[in-house]
Amino acid sequence: MKNILKYTLIFVLLLGALSSCEDDLLEQVNPNAVTTDSFWQSAEDFDKAVNALYSSLQFPAVSGQGLVKNMVRSDFAGSESWYADVKYSNLVWNDASDNVVDRWSQLYVGIYRANQILYYIDGVTFLSDSEKELIIAQTRFLRGLNYFWLIQSYNQAIIHDVLPVEDVDMHKPLSTREEVLSEMIIPDLTFAYEHLPKTWSDSDTGRFTWGAAASMLGKTYLYEKDWTNAAKYFKEVIDAADNDGLYSLVPNFMDNFTIENEFNSESILEVAYSDNYKEGASGTRQDDIGTVPGSEATSIASSFASITGAGGYNTCLPTYWLQELFVAADSIDQANPVNIGMRYSQRTYATIAVEFGDGDYYQAPLTSTDTEKSKANFNYGQGSKVKKWTSWYYKESEDASTSARSGINFRHIRLADVYLMYAEAVLEKDGNTTEALKYIEKVRARAGVLSLQHYMDNNSGMIPVLDKARFPNGLAQYDMVAVSKESLLHHLRMVERPLELAFEGHRWYDLVRWGIIAETFTARKAEEDLIKEKLLDPVTNKMLGDKIFPLYLNERVRPDWPVPAANYNSAVHDYYPIPSIENQSNREL
């Protein structure tokens, strides 16, 4: 996939002659310029255009560091007060904030590139019908995907379904969520589903597939609460995995987040990055602009890696609730060979770094010793660090010397996510707990943790409420509940998806579609207050005693929740506002 994702190409929108000029010298044509008259003339030109289409997925606000600003909005992560990202954690963005503007703009770049291809391929005779069909299917998948992301981020969008060729074409009104779904997302993804292949040759690894289209259709219907259609498409992907061997869970959970096993059997939609190409180019920029080179790399790792010795800035920090969920609730199955010699589960090991945990961190011990200092820097109330999408397992530090370059691919959809979405869909559709449990257990078994059946066998058919943090609430053991549609949905929402999919870009959108942000933030704020009562001296407000399992805090309790818990307003915060640049430039708004 590395060889198809990036071909530096600047597409020029020809708006026609905006003014006449009496100076003939100013009307001379540059014979070396790429124009619409000289491009789109061969199969190679369309191949380059499709490569540029794929490269739009690499943009930071689509698959890179911009996703971090969305992660810190959720109950998974927060940021420190001295970092710019804290405004997203505290829910205080506006229509000119960087991620509000960048995500909108970068998604529309992809849509524009898609519309160019669809416009110029019409009537082409040098491509066969089957070649054209494959190009159109990839193009419409990307366009449908970007519109899906737009309505999840903004709850509305401007429909550009054809290439703008005149100035008036750029000025269009907003369309509702329902209009974007019916006119763009469903038709585009359906066309892709009907025309994309299930697999590509090795030289085309990473291109969009039938499985990606089916998964995105299922996800689209799930988000719109059409449980029947959601379950249908997810089950088709699962059946293709079971019957045709199209997909399978990789035995090692961590293979989904490393540079060694990219485009593996679990991957369904993956964006390629590389830190080997264009060395020195910033990982924050993907396209060449003027004389400033773009990059094939991503800068997302710099938001997670520790600031002390690991080359990052740890602007995104796991919340105490998530940390406890990993180290205390994701109990390992001692009989599962994947956990031999490990204190915590595969999921914990690959997702967060925690003091007294398993293994090293950037070639140094997690906990400082008499002879070697830890690079994790678990100080000042920072109880854990994010490992996913970082090079902690094979480098001594992130590549900060060349502008935060990482080559780890970003996986937007993988089979484990499809299993969990399918379980949710069948529970919502007809309350089928047996079918839902089957796929929840597959995910848990791969992680090497105790099955829900284990809990049921030892607790009269009941399962634990693992998301209720025991430490702040002073619980000796977890509350137990009977298995039902409601209890399994709660488990999916607050235990299984958090543990399996943390920091993969889904959580905020999950919380919004479930409508549980207010109650979730309120619960996290109450837990934070209880942690302070347990760990801080009420007079001096300083930490009492030694570090305590499962948070191992020192110096302070980080204040993640007072501001967002007080600020949250569904009507204001569930979706970003339409960016100011769109309102200012679009005459129809």
CATH domain topology of the domain at 1-18 and 29-75 and 92-196 and 559-589: Serine Threonine Protein Phosphatase 5, Tetratricopeptide repeat
Class by alpha and beta content = mainly alpha
- Biggest beta sheet attributes: 2 strands, antiparallel
CATH architect. name of the domain at 1-18 and 29-75 and 92-196 and 559-589: Alpha Horseshoe
Q: Please compute the radius of gyration using only Cα atoms.
A: 25 Å
What is the CATH top level name of the domain at 1-18 and 29-75 and 92-196 and 559-589? Answer: Mainly Alpha
Fraction in helix: 40-55%
* Number of helices, counting only DSSP H or I runs of 4 residues or more: 22
Number of beta-strand segments: 12
Shape: globular
> Within the largest sheet, what's the order of strands?
1-5
Proportion in β-strands:
5-15%
Question: Kindly, what is the distance between the CA atoms of the first and last residues, rounded to a whole number of angstroms?
Answer: 39 Å
Mean pLDDT: 92
Q: What ranges have pLDDT less than 50 throughout 5 or more consecutive residues?
A: 2-26
Q: Please, could you describe this protein's structure?
A:
The structure is a single chain. With 589 residues, the protein is mainly α. Helix content is 42%, strand content 6%. The chain is built from 22 helices and twelve strands. The protein has helices at 2-5, 43-55, 60-63, 66-71, 86-89, 98-121, 129-154, 177-195, 210-223, 227-244, 320-329, 346-351, 415-430, 433-447, 452-458, 470-473, 485-501, 507-514, 517-535, 562-567, 570-573, 580-585, and strands at 77-78, 156-157, 175-176, 267-271, 317-318, 352-354, 360-361, 364-365, 384-386, 410-414, 462-464, 480-482. Strand 7 and strand 8 (364-365) form a beta hairpin. Helix 6 runs antiparallel to helix 7 (129-154), helix 8 packs antiparallel against helix 9 and helix 13 runs antiparallel to helix 17. The chain is globular. The chain starts with a helix and ends with a helix. Residues 2-26 have low confidence and may be disordered.
